[in-house]
Amino acid sequence: MQMENSSDQEEVSEESFNSTLQCLKDLQREYEMQEKYAEAEKIENKIQKLKEKKRKKDIMKLKNRQKSERHSINSIYKSESKNFNNRWESVLSSNLEKYKVQEEELIKKHKKMYEDEKETLEKNAPCFFKPSAMLLNTIKCKEKAVTSKKYREAQKLAKEIESALEIEKKMYIENRQAKIDKQLSIFQKKLDKELEVLRLKKEAELREINKQRLYERENMERRVENICRELENAQNIQINIAKGLHTTNAGRQSPYKSGSSFRSDHSSPSKFLVHKKSISKAT
Protein backbone atom coordinates (compact mmCIF):
# COMPACT_ATOMS: atom_id res chain seq x y z
CA MET A 1 0.00 0.00 0.00
CA GLN A 2 2.85 2.37 0.91
CA MET A 3 4.60 1.65 -2.39
CA GLU A 4 1.34 2.31 -4.30
CA ASN A 5 0.92 5.66 -2.49
CA SER A 6 4.52 6.60 -3.30
CA SER A 7 3.96 5.71 -6.95
CA ASP A 8 0.76 7.75 -7.03
CA GLN A 9 2.58 10.75 -5.54
CA GLU A 10 5.31 10.48 -8.17
CA GLU A 11 2.68 10.36 -10.94
CA VAL A 12 0.91 13.39 -9.48
CA SER A 13 4.23 15.24 -9.21
CA GLU A 14 5.13 14.34 -12.79
CA GLU A 15 1.70 15.44 -14.01
CA SER A 16 2.02 18.70 -12.08
CA PHE A 17 5.43 19.37 -13.64
CA ASN A 18 4.18 18.62 -17.16
CA SER A 19 1.08 20.75 -16.64
CA THR A 20 3.10 23.70 -15.33
CA LEU A 21 5.68 23.35 -18.09
CA GLN A 22 2.96 23.25 -20.76
CA CYS A 23 1.28 26.34 -19.33
CA LEU A 24 4.59 28.25 -19.37
CA LYS A 25 5.30 27.20 -22.95
CA ASP A 26 1.81 28.25 -24.03
CA LEU A 27 2.30 31.61 -22.31
CA GLN A 28 5.72 31.99 -23.93
CA ARG A 29 4.24 31.41 -27.38
CA GLU A 30 1.57 34.02 -26.71
CA TYR A 31 4.25 36.60 -25.80
CA GLU A 32 6.20 35.65 -28.91
CA MET A 33 3.11 36.17 -31.04
CA GLN A 34 2.52 39.50 -29.30
CA GLU A 35 6.21 40.36 -29.83
CA LYS A 36 6.67 40.79 -26.08
CA TYR A 37 10.12 39.30 -26.18
CA ALA A 38 11.22 40.59 -22.78
CA GLU A 39 8.29 38.82 -21.21
CA ALA A 40 8.99 35.73 -23.31
CA GLU A 41 12.61 35.72 -22.02
CA LYS A 42 11.37 35.85 -18.43
CA ILE A 43 9.13 32.87 -19.14
CA GLU A 44 12.11 31.06 -20.73
CA ASN A 45 14.10 31.64 -17.53
CA LYS A 46 11.24 30.22 -15.48
CA ILE A 47 11.07 27.19 -17.77
CA GLN A 48 14.82 26.56 -17.39
CA LYS A 49 14.62 26.96 -13.60
CA LEU A 50 11.66 24.56 -13.49
CA LYS A 51 13.56 22.03 -15.60
CA GLU A 52 16.69 22.41 -13.46
CA LYS A 53 14.65 21.93 -10.30
CA LYS A 54 13.01 18.84 -11.83
CA ARG A 55 16.40 17.50 -12.94
CA LYS A 56 17.90 17.89 -9.45
CA LYS A 57 14.86 16.25 -7.93
CA ASP A 58 15.11 13.33 -10.37
CA ILE A 59 18.82 12.93 -9.63
CA MET A 60 18.11 12.90 -5.89
CA LYS A 61 15.42 10.25 -6.38
CA LEU A 62 17.79 8.25 -8.57
CA LYS A 63 20.59 8.41 -5.98
CA ASN A 64 18.21 7.31 -3.23
CA ARG A 65 17.07 4.37 -5.34
CA GLN A 66 20.66 3.46 -6.15
CA LYS A 67 21.56 3.60 -2.48
CA SER A 68 18.67 1.25 -1.77
CA GLU A 69 19.91 -1.10 -4.49
CA ARG A 70 23.41 -1.18 -2.99
CA HIS A 71 21.99 -1.78 0.46
CA SER A 72 19.80 -4.57 -0.90
CA ILE A 73 22.77 -6.33 -2.49
CA ASN A 74 24.82 -5.92 0.68
CA SER A 75 21.99 -7.37 2.78
CA ILE A 76 21.51 -10.30 0.44
CA TYR A 77 25.26 -10.95 0.37
CA LYS A 78 25.43 -10.98 4.16
CA SER A 79 22.51 -13.39 4.31
CA GLU A 80 24.04 -15.66 1.66
CA SER A 81 27.43 -15.49 3.39
CA LYS A 82 25.84 -16.49 6.67
CA ASN A 83 24.01 -19.39 5.01
CA PHE A 84 27.24 -20.41 3.28
CA ASN A 85 29.14 -20.50 6.58
CA ASN A 86 26.34 -22.34 8.37
CA ARG A 87 26.15 -24.92 5.60
CA TRP A 88 29.86 -25.66 5.64
CA GLU A 89 30.07 -25.61 9.44
CA SER A 90 27.31 -28.22 9.40
CA VAL A 91 29.27 -30.35 6.91
CA LEU A 92 32.44 -30.02 8.98
CA SER A 93 30.65 -30.75 12.24
CA SER A 94 28.92 -33.78 10.71
CA ASN A 95 32.22 -35.24 9.52
CA LEU A 96 33.98 -34.57 12.82
CA GLU A 97 31.13 -36.28 14.67
CA LYS A 98 31.25 -39.23 12.26
CA TYR A 99 34.97 -39.78 12.84
CA LYS A 100 34.63 -39.20 16.56
CA VAL A 101 32.10 -42.05 16.75
CA GLN A 102 34.26 -44.28 14.55
CA GLU A 103 37.35 -43.55 16.65
CA GLU A 104 35.55 -44.21 19.92
CA GLU A 105 34.17 -47.50 18.57
CA LEU A 106 37.61 -48.54 17.28
CA ILE A 107 39.29 -47.70 20.61
CA LYS A 108 36.65 -49.71 22.44
CA LYS A 109 37.16 -52.61 20.03
CA HIS A 110 40.95 -52.41 20.44
CA LYS A 111 40.65 -52.43 24.21
CA LYS A 112 38.70 -55.69 24.10
CA MET A 113 41.08 -57.19 21.55
CA TYR A 114 44.04 -56.24 23.76
CA GLU A 115 42.49 -57.83 26.84
CA ASP A 116 41.68 -60.99 24.86
CA GLU A 117 45.22 -61.14 23.50
CA LYS A 118 46.68 -60.65 26.95
CA GLU A 119 44.53 -63.42 28.36
CA THR A 120 45.54 -65.76 25.51
CA LEU A 121 49.26 -65.04 25.96
CA GLU A 122 49.13 -65.56 29.71
CA LYS A 123 47.21 -68.78 29.22
CA ASN A 124 49.61 -70.17 26.60
CA ALA A 125 52.86 -69.06 28.25
CA PRO A 126 54.70 -71.88 30.12
CA CYS A 127 53.72 -71.94 33.81
CA PHE A 128 56.10 -74.64 35.09
CA PHE A 129 59.39 -73.52 36.55
CA LYS A 130 62.44 -75.49 35.41
CA PRO A 131 65.58 -75.19 37.57
CA SER A 132 68.88 -74.47 35.87
CA ALA A 133 71.55 -77.17 35.34
CA MET A 134 73.73 -75.54 37.99
CA LEU A 135 70.89 -75.61 40.53
CA LEU A 136 70.13 -79.27 39.72
CA ASN A 137 73.80 -80.11 40.20
CA THR A 138 73.82 -78.35 43.58
CA ILE A 139 70.75 -80.37 44.64
CA LYS A 140 72.54 -83.60 43.71
CA CYS A 141 75.62 -82.52 45.71
CA LYS A 142 73.36 -81.88 48.72
CA GLU A 143 71.80 -85.34 48.41
CA LYS A 144 75.25 -86.92 48.25
CA ALA A 145 76.34 -84.98 51.31
CA VAL A 146 73.28 -86.23 53.19
CA THR A 147 73.98 -89.81 52.07
CA SER A 148 77.59 -89.41 53.24
CA LYS A 149 76.38 -88.06 56.61
CA LYS A 150 78.08 -84.74 55.85
CA TYR A 151 75.28 -82.76 57.44
CA ARG A 152 77.19 -79.52 57.86
CA GLU A 153 78.00 -79.43 54.14
CA ALA A 154 74.43 -80.50 53.32
CA GLN A 155 73.08 -77.67 55.47
CA LYS A 156 75.26 -75.16 53.65
CA LEU A 157 74.17 -76.49 50.25
CA ALA A 158 70.50 -76.42 51.33
CA LYS A 159 70.76 -72.70 52.08
CA GLU A 160 72.46 -72.09 48.71
CA ILE A 161 69.72 -74.09 46.98
CA GLU A 162 66.98 -72.12 48.72
CA SER A 163 68.55 -68.80 47.78
CA ALA A 164 69.24 -69.87 44.16
CA LEU A 165 65.76 -71.32 43.82
CA GLU A 166 64.18 -68.03 44.92
CA ILE A 167 66.34 -66.07 42.48
CA GLU A 168 65.66 -68.40 39.55
CA LYS A 169 61.90 -68.46 40.19
CA LYS A 170 61.88 -64.66 40.28
CA MET A 171 63.88 -64.50 37.03
CA TYR A 172 61.56 -67.05 35.43
CA ILE A 173 58.48 -64.98 36.34
CA GLU A 174 60.15 -61.79 35.08
CA ASN A 175 61.27 -63.41 31.81
CA ARG A 176 57.83 -64.94 31.29
CA GLN A 177 56.18 -61.56 31.84
CA ALA A 178 58.74 -59.84 29.58
CA LYS A 179 57.88 -62.21 26.74
CA ILE A 180 54.16 -61.56 27.26
CA ASP A 181 54.75 -57.79 27.38
CA LYS A 182 56.81 -57.93 24.18
CA GLN A 183 54.05 -59.75 22.34
CA LEU A 184 51.47 -57.32 23.72
CA SER A 185 53.64 -54.38 22.60
CA ILE A 186 53.77 -55.78 19.05
CA PHE A 187 50.03 -56.34 19.12
CA GLN A 188 49.41 -52.81 20.46
CA LYS A 189 51.49 -51.29 17.65
CA LYS A 190 49.31 -53.12 15.16
CA LEU A 191 46.19 -51.66 16.81
CA ASP A 192 47.76 -48.19 16.94
CA LYS A 193 48.55 -48.40 13.24
CA GLU A 194 44.92 -49.17 12.47
CA LEU A 195 43.84 -46.19 14.57
CA GLU A 196 46.41 -43.94 12.87
CA VAL A 197 45.05 -44.96 9.45
CA LEU A 198 41.58 -43.83 10.54
CA ARG A 199 42.93 -40.51 11.82
CA LEU A 200 44.88 -39.89 8.61
CA LYS A 201 41.73 -40.63 6.63
CA LYS A 202 39.85 -38.10 8.75
CA GLU A 203 42.51 -35.43 8.24
CA ALA A 204 42.56 -36.02 4.48
CA GLU A 205 38.77 -35.72 4.23
CA LEU A 206 38.75 -32.56 6.36
CA ARG A 207 41.43 -31.04 4.12
CA GLU A 208 39.27 -31.77 1.09
CA ILE A 209 36.25 -30.21 2.78
CA ASN A 210 38.19 -27.05 3.66
CA LYS A 211 39.66 -26.95 0.15
CA GLN A 212 36.19 -27.17 -1.42
CA ARG A 213 34.86 -24.60 1.03
CA LEU A 214 37.66 -22.16 0.15
CA TYR A 215 37.07 -22.75 -3.57
CA GLU A 216 33.36 -21.96 -3.27
CA ARG A 217 34.04 -18.96 -1.01
CA GLU A 218 36.47 -17.49 -3.57
CA ASN A 219 33.96 -18.03 -6.37
CA MET A 220 31.26 -16.36 -4.32
CA GLU A 221 33.51 -13.38 -3.56
CA ARG A 222 34.41 -13.00 -7.24
CA ARG A 223 30.73 -13.09 -8.21
CA VAL A 224 29.93 -10.43 -5.64
CA GLU A 225 32.82 -8.25 -6.82
CA ASN A 226 31.62 -8.54 -10.41
CA ILE A 227 28.04 -7.68 -9.44
CA CYS A 228 29.16 -4.65 -7.40
CA ARG A 229 31.39 -3.47 -10.25
CA GLU A 230 28.57 -3.94 -12.75
CA LEU A 231 26.15 -2.10 -10.50
CA GLU A 232 28.60 0.76 -9.92
CA ASN A 233 29.18 1.19 -13.67
CA ALA A 234 25.46 1.02 -14.39
CA GLN A 235 24.65 3.57 -11.68
CA ASN A 236 27.36 5.94 -12.95
CA ILE A 237 25.80 5.74 -16.42
CA GLN A 238 22.37 6.45 -14.93
CA ILE A 239 23.68 9.51 -13.08
CA ASN A 240 25.51 10.81 -16.17
CA ILE A 241 22.42 10.40 -18.32
CA ALA A 242 20.28 12.11 -15.66
CA LYS A 243 22.76 15.00 -15.51
CA GLY A 244 22.80 15.24 -19.29
CA LEU A 245 26.54 14.56 -19.43
CA HIS A 246 28.22 13.02 -22.48
CA THR A 247 28.31 9.21 -22.42
CA THR A 248 29.49 6.64 -24.96
CA ASN A 249 27.05 4.94 -27.28
CA ALA A 250 27.66 1.75 -25.35
CA GLY A 251 26.73 3.57 -22.19
CA ARG A 252 23.53 4.92 -23.68
CA GLN A 253 22.59 1.45 -24.84
CA SER A 254 23.13 0.02 -21.37
CA PRO A 255 20.11 -1.80 -19.91
CA TYR A 256 20.55 0.38 -16.81
CA LYS A 257 18.85 3.46 -18.26
CA SER A 258 17.47 6.30 -16.23
CA GLY A 259 14.39 5.09 -14.50
CA SER A 260 15.35 1.41 -14.73
CA SER A 261 16.07 -0.67 -11.68
CA PHE A 262 19.06 -2.96 -11.11
CA ARG A 263 17.10 -4.66 -8.40
CA SER A 264 14.18 -5.43 -10.69
CA ASP A 265 16.51 -7.31 -13.03
CA HIS A 266 18.18 -9.16 -10.17
CA SER A 267 15.42 -9.63 -7.67
CA SER A 268 16.45 -13.18 -6.89
CA PRO A 269 19.69 -13.64 -4.88
CA SER A 270 20.35 -16.86 -6.79
CA LYS A 271 20.81 -14.79 -9.97
CA PHE A 272 23.73 -12.74 -8.73
CA LEU A 273 25.14 -14.12 -5.50
CA VAL A 274 25.69 -17.67 -4.33
CA HIS A 275 24.33 -20.57 -6.34
CA LYS A 276 24.21 -23.29 -3.72
CA LYS A 277 26.13 -26.33 -4.84
CA SER A 278 25.64 -29.92 -3.90
CA ILE A 279 28.17 -30.97 -1.32
CA SER A 280 27.39 -34.63 -1.35
CA LYS A 281 30.94 -35.31 -2.50
CA ALA A 282 32.31 -33.51 0.55
CA THR A 283 30.09 -35.46 2.86
From TrEMBL:
It comes from the Eukaryota. Keywords: Coiled coil. Residues 246-262 have a biased composition (Polar residues). Residues 246-283 are annotated as: Disordered. Residues 273-283 have a biased composition (Basic residues). Residues 24-70, 151-237 form a coiled coil. The keyword Coiled coil applies. PANTHER family: FLAGELLAR ASSOCIATED PROTEIN, PIGMENTOSA GTPASE REGULATOR-LIKE PROTEIN, PUTATIVE-RELATED. This is Uncharacterized protein. It comes from Stentor coeruleus. The lineage of its organism: Eukaryota, Sar, Alveolata, Ciliophora, Postciliodesmatophora.
